[in-house]
Write a structure and sequence with these properties.
The structure holds 2 protein chains of 2 kinds. Chain A has one domain. Chain A has a 7-stranded antiparallel β-sheet, sandwiched between helices. Chain A is globular. By secondary structure, chain A is of the alpha+beta class. Chain A contains 5 helices and 7 strands, in the order αβααβαββββαβ. In chain A, a hairpin with a 2-residue loop joins strand 5 and strand 6. Chain B contains 5 helices and 5 strands; from the N terminus they run ααβαββββαα. The longest helix of chain B is centred in the first third of the chain and has 32 residues. The termini of chain B are far apart. In chain B, about 35% of the residues are buried. The chains are: A alpha+beta, B alpha+beta. Strand 1 of chain A pairs antiparallel with strand 2 of chain B.
């Protein structure tokens, strides 16, 4: 996953206004990374965008409905010059917040060949909607975390990839990839 | 004047005035932090014409401040810039922050709401120079920005 998917955080603190908190170590990673990107689409920004979407246009109406249920979209991405610049402990600090029964890991893919780990977590919610989503994509020289806070229906998830600064997550299918 | 209309006008003017203050505050913060003055751009009106031609569709209300001869160190200024931008951004919302050690470049994008659309402030620090841009976005430009926030700074800040 390229870091060009980029992304901010001007609070510049460690806490996002969301369901999970970014580990303090991530700020240190930003200082070490060759490139780091933070993107923050908080509820205010999403509401602002939603105001300008039309109910008459089918695509815009769909996007408006999607945005309406969201509280925030946050992307944090790091690209390092060499391997080993971040540790498993850095990622574990995030994973430790994604525990059952509130969170469920629905995808866990590890590539032994490429050293890539992709994990997707859903926040448990009543009914047909998910209460939130976290994607972790860890490669030897890249680390990307996407957090989506708010109600999302599973059928809307595919529409979010490639929009709002969210990278498209393509799960590996080739040999050498083993699902956990 | 009807009270409702007056309220709308006041709200709109307050938002716009606040955003102007944000731009000025950022400019002063850079001047104070680095001990420099914004560069005078001769024939800014002529320059604005070309900027108008070049800027993306849906953007208006262009304001620009350029700084030169900033002493930026590759390793030491990231946290200091973050703090300065956080302090100077006021009520604006942070949208994008990009740090590139490779290119020795930092980009910050903040957004604020105006009466009809959104206002965007972009600050770029690179190679001893800084650029601060304020621009208003109409509906379509705002939606394009939200679609791909990370690329928002490109047409303006670099």
């Amino acid at each position: 996953m390229r870091i060009a998917i980029v992304v901010l955080a001007a609070t510049l603190g460690t806490a996002w206004a969301q369901d999970i908190k970014m580990p303090p170590a991530f700020d240190k990673l930003a200082a070490k990374a060759e490139e780091s990107v933070d993107v923050t689409l908080d509820s205010g920004m999403l509401q602002l965008g939603g105001k300008f979407l039309s109910d008459k246009d089918a695509d815009e109406a769909k996007a408006k409905k999607l945005i309406g249920g969201l509280k925030g979209i946050y992307v944090r991405s790091f690209e390092f010059a060499k391997e080993g610049e971040y540790s498993a402990a850095d990622v574990d600090a995030l994973r430790s917040q994604l525990q059952p029964p509130v969170w469920s890991r629905v995808v866990g893919v590890t590539s032994k060949k490429g050293g890539e780990i992709t994990e997707v977590y859903f926040k448990t919610s009543n009914g047909a909607q998910i209460g939130g989503l976290v994607v972790i994509d860890a490669e030897p020289k890249e680390l990307t975390v996407v957090s989506i806070s708010g109600a999302i229906s599973p059928e809307d998830l595919a529409d979010l990839g490639g929009q709002f600064g969210i990278p498209k997550v393509e799960l590996p299918k080739s040999k050498g990839k083993e699902a956990k | 004047m009807r009270p409702r209309l007056l309220a709308v006008l006041l709200a709109a003017s307050t938002g716009a005035f606040g955003a102007d203050r944000d731009f000025d505050r950022l400019v002063k913060a850079v001047e104070s932090r680095f001990g420099v003055q914004r560069t005078y751009i001769p024939l800014m009106g002529v320059a604005s014409f070309f900027v108008k031609v070049a800027r993306p569709e849906g953007a208006s209300g262009f304001k620009l401040a350029v700084f030169e001869d900033l002493k930026l160190s590759a390793d030491g200024d990231g946290a200091a810039l973050d703090r300065m931008m956080a302090d100077a951004s006021g009520d604006l919302r942070p949208l994008v922050r990009v740090r590139s050690r490779r290119n020795h470049e930092w980009t910050y994008i903040f957004t604020g709401e105006t009466g009809k659309a959104a206002r965007m402030l972009i600050a770029t620090f690179a190679r001893g120079e800084a650029t601060i841009v304020e621009v208003d976005l109409n509906r379509d430009a705002l939606l394009r920005l939200m679609e791909n926030p990370a690329r928002a700074g490109g047409p303006f800040g670099k």
